[in-house]
Each structure stands twice: as C-alpha cells, then as structure tokens.
C-alpha cells in the first residue's frame, strides 16, 4: 500500500543511488564528475571480502579510463592482461596442449584485481571527489511516481528523490518494490574459486581450458597467487561436497597448466552459485536499475562489471545532458548489450559442455581452427570480450565453431541474410521471456499490424 508523504516529512535529493558496490560507486563518481551531488547509500558499514567479479574485460578497461579509475587500480596492484591462452585435449589420445594469442594487435588490456580492492579504490575515488556516502542503511520502502520516487530508509529517514538508481546486486530489493517484471532462467552450474600457488601462468595472461567436468579459468591475482575458477555442474558439486578442495586440485593437476601436479592451495575453494536473472525493462518513470540489479548472466562470459560500467557512463551522461533523461532509448541499448552478454554465455556453455564423442571431435576441430586462423581468432576474442557487440547470425555460429568454411560464410554474408533474420533470431533465442511468450507476442503484434493496415 502506497503512503502519501507530506512534503515536510521528507527531504529532497536530486539523485539517490541505492547500493555502494562497483556499479553504485561508479555511477556516483561519474555524476560527481558531471557536477551533480548524488547520495549513495550502502547497507554494509565496511567492505566485506568476497569472491565476486575480479576481471575487467577490454571494454571495461576503456570505461575505467574514462572514469579516471584505471591508474588508481594499477597503483593498488591490478595486473594488466594482454593475452588469452587455451588448453585442450585430443579427443582420441587425451594428450593436452596449449597455445597463446594476444587480445588484439591494437593492444587493449584486460585487468585483474581482487574484488575488495576494486571496491576500496572505487570508494576512495568517490569520496575524494566530494561524494556523499551513507553507510549502514538500506531502502525500506520505495514508491515510484512519474516525476519522483518516495524513499524510506531503514533509519526512518524519508527522501523525495528526483532520480532514483537501484544498484544493490542481483537480489535487489528495490527492483521488487518497484514491481519490475523479472525473469529467472534456471542455471545448473557452480563456480569454484580459489587462490593457487605454483602454477605456471604468466602475469599478463588469461588462461582457459575445458576440463572433464566443465571449464577452468586461471589468471594472476594481485594477492600474489593464481586465481583459479572452476565451472562445474551443481550435481558434480553435490557429488564432491565433502572434498571440494581435493576435487578442485585434482582437476588442476589433470589440466594442461604446468605446475598443476605440485600446486598448493592457499586457503580454500569457495563455491559461487550462478544466477541468470533479468528484467523486462530496467527503468520505471524516473527510476532505473543497473548492474546485477538489472541483469545477471552466466559468469562464463565474464561480462558483468564491464557491461555495468558501460551502462554507468551512458546513463550518467544522459542525465548530464537532459533535464528529463530519455531512459527509454537507453533501455534499448542496455537490452542490446545484455543480449550480447547472454548470447556469449550461451555460446561458451554449449562449446564447453560435455557430450558425445562426436561433440568432442567437433569442439577439438573448432579449437584447432581457432589456433590456426588469425582472423577467426580475432573475431572470437572481440565478441567474447565485448569489443565487438555486433549480433551474431545463426549461420555464423557454425563458422565460429569451425564447422562452416570461410568462403561459404563470406558468400552468405554477401546475401545479407544477417540483416533479415537477426531481429527474429535474437528475439527467439535470447529473450528472457522464453520462446513461447515471445512467439505469442510476435503473433499478436502481427494481428494488430494487419488490423491497422486494413483500417
């Protein structure tokens, strides 16, 4: 039930940001740079160490530079990532090998740094800019109106916010209060994360490998060891729940990483349960939601923080240019980036999923083609890292997998089939609503169009 607050019962804020994580602090900092005075509220009174995003893709690094955060992160110990390495096994002999390729000839970087250090740098820079941060409180009630939002905080304070931004993460309470239509797609994978010593991974390299049970990622952490992520099915985790550390270290020992057999675990492997949640629209009137509060995708694609920073820049700059920001057009662009991240996550999950002998042969062939075809390799790196967000047509998927010859793909490109099939393809394959609801909407929209034309 909505409460009509009297003007004298509340104070006014031009911009209120709920959530003092990566997205909320970055948005606050950008708005400060544009001359605004936002208020950021955060329920935690101190930074809590946790296993979350620890890698910025090249697109995210470009955003960090625009925000003035790149150099402070380097001073904090962030490590530049300049290449990607891949390990794979012959489907018949099981013999493993690895190869390395640069991100790009132009030299865009990835960046690795542990999550609490990211938050510390973001918070320091926001406060240094003169930003206001209210800790230990959260939004208790939110009522979104056409021109403002009524906000009641957990400390009893009432605020009339001209603009409200929700950035509290995937379990965003304010998103639920605003009754945004949320879609949850089941995901049956778990990420195991741990710091491992003794592995032969260079400090400027991001290593990936398919394992017997999933995918292995490895890159140096600024805490002096290699951060290893293992993506496995939740059933596999249940099978090894009493020996997670031993299971993870056995997987590393059987990989193509040198030093795996004698590697040492620092601490323990922590499970990260994967979520895949999205909203139909990430705004309502003059309130909007960014980061994991609007979209969480399978972390296999690693787009989370980078997509959030892209959104921060777009939304903040729109607020800076217009008294009445055009959130509708921004939502369209957000949807495009969200679907790209979703597509990449689906693509990688298909590529690395275990399957039949035929499937293993096809994946082996794809990796061999990737190793020997520089143009294909560069195209894949650009798509996976978000440097190129062009939507990928159905006939290009076999090409990316190494099943479709380059000359045939080029002939299909000349016919411009992508432009003809992309809108429907992306709606059907990537819609968070699911195939049935999307088809129903398309059918009804077609009937409405026909009736309008007849009149």
Can you summarize the main beta sheet?
8 strands, mixed
Low-confidence parts, pLDDT < 50 over ≥5 residues?
1-5, 432-436, 449-455
What's the CATH class label of the largest domain?
Answer: Alpha Beta
Gap between N and C termini: 42 Å
CATH homologous superfamily assignment of the largest domain:
FAD/NAD(P)-binding domain
CATH topology of the largest domain: FAD/NAD(P)-binding domain
What value does the Rg take, in angstroms?
Answer: 23 Å
Given helix and strand content, the structural type is: alpha+beta
Would you report the number of β strands?
Answer: 21
- Give the second-level CATH assignment, the architecture of the largest domain: 3-Layer(bba) Sandwich
The DSSP helix count reads: 15
Shape: globular
Helical content, roughly?
40-55%
| Share of residues in strands | 15-25%
How many structural domains does the protein architecture include?
3
> What's the rounded overall pLDDT mean?
80
